[in-house]
Design goal:
There is one protein chain. This protein is α/β, with parallel strands linked by helices. The protein has 2 domains: 2-109 and 228-294, FAD/NAD(P)-binding domain, CATH 3.50.50; 118-222, FAD/NAD(P)-binding domain (3-Layer(bba) Sandwich), CATH 3.50.50. The chain contains 7 helices and 17 strands. The chain has helices at 12-23, 54-67, 129-132, 148-156, 177-185, 229-236, 271-294; strands at 2-8, 28-31, 71-73, 77-83, 86-91, 95-103, 125-126, 140-144, 163-167, 190-191, 195-200, 204-209, 214-216, 219-222, 240-241, 244-245, 258-260. The strands form 4 sheets. Strands 1, 2, 3, 4, 5, 6 and 17 form a 7-stranded mixed beta sheet that branches. A 5-stranded parallel beta sheet has the order 7-14-8-9-10, covered by helices on one side. Strands 11-12-13 form a 3-stranded antiparallel beta sheet, with no helix packed on it. The radius of gyration is 20 Å and the shape is globular.
């Protein structure tokens, strides 16, 4: 399905952006899963908004966006890539295409409870198969994760190596039936033992498990929980600093056609800030698409 603008994230930043693109007569899709704002019991510091729970605020935003024709999809996004002059968003059920992308997924709050991952970052530990998978031809490689995002990264390693293992780190496997069948068909081992740490010398050589055992490994790709804004951005070559997407005053990233808004850009994590940044991102995405159409 093809859209003018695809917004990844159903929080206040994404919903705000969708109002500007939809009111500009652009085919707009908002895709993602439940915003963490839904857990906020009471919000009092959103100017002109009154007192409301996060769930109430989001419901108002969804209703308002849908009145302007915004399509809402509740799916987990697992990949984002560029294809010629547009973008492809891969979700757990379907694939969507669009001329412009607004990343508004907030920040990934799922910690990875494995010691020394950062110590071996770029030295055996990686967060992007598309970026670094090539260097592990026929190597023994693992993917750390337990959701569809992790299986997607395993699929990206096809043709690079067949020495693959999925490590869930004590979590139960939470994937679609299609991905469950994929793991069975490809006979990819799924190891659920809790991991204590990664280890090695100058480069990663081992996984150390909580039970005291160890396993030799040459590369580990982290895809823990659901894909975050930084995961998407990294695949497109978007600039990232201190775990946040870098944008200019117009919410533009360094990649043409890609915008970002809300908590994923750093700064003050407030509904009012997210709504304002979303408005700017939506307006700028609208101008970008209009320029493509006029050109």
């Amino acid at each position: 399905m093809f859209y003018d603008v695809i917004i990844i994230g159903k929080g206040p930043a994404g919903l705000s952006a969708s109002l500007y693109t939809a009111r500009g007569n652009l085919r707009t899709l908002v895709i993602g899963q439940e915003s963490r704002l839904v857990k906020a019991k009471q919000i009092e510091n959103f100017c002109c908004g009154g007192v409301a729970s996060g769930e109430e605020l989001l419901a108002r935003g969804v209703s308002q966006a849908e009145r302007f024709g915004v399509r809402m999809i509740d799916e987990e996004v697992v990949d984002l890539k560029r294809r010629d002059d547009h973008f492809v968003v891969v979700a757990d059920k379907m694939t969507y295409e669009g001329k412009a992308i607004i990343i508004a997924t907030g920040k990934n709050n799922v910690p990875v409870p494995v010691a020394d991952l950062e110590k071996y970052l770029g030295k055996g530990v990686h967060y992007c198969v598309l970026c670094d998978g090539f260097f592990y031809q026929e190597a023994k490689v693992g993917v750390l994760g337990f959701k569809d995002f992790a299986v997607h990264e395993l699929r990206e390693l096809e043709g690079i190596t067949n020495k693959l293992t999925l490590y869930t780190n004590g979590n139960s496997l939470q994937v679609s039936k299609e991905n469950e069948q994929y793991l069975m068909d490809k006979q990819i081992p799924v190891k659920t033992d809790p991991i204590r740490a990664v280890a090695g010398g100058d480069f990663l050589t081992q996984l150390l498990f909580q039970d005291g055992s160890a396993e030799e490994l040459e590369g580990l790709f982290v895809a823990y929980g659901s894909a975050s804004s930084v995961d998407f951005a990294r695949k497109l070559g978007v600039r990232i600093e201190n775990g946040s997407i870098v944008v200019d005053q117009n919410q533009k990233t360094n990649v043409s056609g890609v915008f970002a808004a809300g908590d994923c850009t750093g700064g003050l994590a407030q509904v009012s800030v997210a709504v304002g940044q979303g408005a700017v991102a939506g307006e700028q995405a609208k101008r970008y698409v209009k320029a493509l159409q006029d050109g």
